[in-house]
Amino acid sequence: MFSIISDYLKKKMDLFKLEVVEKTLTSAGAITFSILLLAMLTFFIGLLSVGISLWLGDILQNISYGFLSVSGFYLFIIILMIIFKKKLKKEFTNLILKYFNN
Length: 102
Prior knowledge:
Phage_holin_3_6, transmembrane helix
């Protein structure tokens, strides 16, 4: 009887270890993918911003105005993020918890 319980506990511990390894590797893969995606998105947004700034500068006949317009847009986005900080935090927290609970 003791050996059966001992075997059961050993197998349960092995299963727990495998589940921890699986969650760790899944998380590491997701984090790596997210970092790469964020880097590519940063390059894309940066180059797009420069392109739009130059285009607006051409329309406004002053390159500086184009860059100021795009900067103003980003300032507007930052202000919105500050205003809706609590709601954004809650949504991102729920998203992360939902990912790790699956």
